[in-house]
Amino acid sequence: MVLSLAAIVVGLALLVWSADRFVEGAAATARNLGVSTLIIGITIIGFGTSAPEIMISLFSVLDNTPDLAIGNALGSNIANIGLILGFTAIFVPLGFGSALLKREFPILLLASGLLVWVLWDNRLNLTDGLLLMGLLTGAMVYLIRSSLASRDDRLIEEMDHEIPTDMSTGKALMWSLVGLVVLVASSRLLVWGAVNIATALGVGELIIGLTIVAIGTSLPELAAAIAGARKGEPDLVMGNVIGSNLFNSLAVIGIPALLTNFQISPEAFSRDLSVTLALTLGLFVMSRYPSSSCCLITRNKGILLLSAFVLYQGLLYYQAAVHS
């Protein structure tokens, strides 16, 4: 038990560190090669922020613990909206006006609807993976093409500040490689520890993925979101959440499905996907209504989101205690 706990703590720490190094290195490399901030933000940063979840899901499915994979994906989406946006908005209300975000939100709703379709039978296969990755590819192409005409978008300006400008190409490539290697190793370590903890406590891998893993990978993003809001970059905060949830919904679940067929617990669909959909729809409504505070996540809305997250976590712990 002690060794497994240590594996989770060390794995999470290395996972977060390596993901940051990988994203910084890849983004700096792309910038040095002349790639635009828009493309870097939508593709490299978007993929990089979900890289830990992708690696965890891959190893979970390959280790025959698919519930950890689905719990990690759905739990991260729930934590992104309920914990990160909710907690951040309580301290710094989030007003945003990026046209790019307004294009991303409907795509996230579409991705959520596709998740309902592919998870309806509690099983994922190659066809499901192709559908999910096909939508992600189409979404990336659409966002890039439709946003090329609006290079003065606030979100692009805020992204530009986050990409390193003083890193040589050689150093950037080195950090990309180091980040990727450590990312793979730490993901493997985390999955090993999480499975052992689930076995020792007598709870399912789904609960571990929804709680320890999802919250653990979200805490650094919470700190980054608060810092971004305080620096006056609310569009970047919201963009990171929407982009991360889009990749979690499509790539984190879709990539493992391309490699193998696997079954998931019915609770993942009936309980956890339902909460994910409710929070996504709730955020969509909150960001647009009432019209007097359009596109503003106020403190009261933040309290509502955070309260929903806390109640959901309480439900998970209660159900785990009942079944253990």
From the structure provided, what is the oligomeric state, counting identical versus distinct chains? single chain
- CATH homology superfamily name: NCX, central ion-binding region
Count up the domains. 1
Overall mean pLDDT: 86
| Largest sheet: spatial strand order | 1-4
Separation of termini?
A: 17 Å
CATH class: Mainly Alpha
Supply the CATH architecture: Up-down Bundle
Number of separate strands: 4
* Class from helix and strand fractions: mainly alpha
Q: H/E series, N to C?
A: HHHHEHEHHHHHEHEH
- Can you tell me the overall shape? globular
| Helix run count | 12
Main sheet overview? 2 strands, antiparallel
* Weakly predicted, low-confidence segments: none
Name the helicity range.
over 70%
Overview of the structural elements:
The structure is a single chain. 82% of the residues lie in helices and 2% in strands. It is mostly helical and 324 residues long. It has a single domain (2-323), classed as NCX, central ion-binding region (A middle domain of Talin 1). The chain has a two-stranded antiparallel sheet. Helix 1 runs antiparallel to helix 8 (169-201), helix 3 packs across helix 8 and helix 8 packs across helix 9 (205-230). The longest helix has 33 residues, at 169-201.
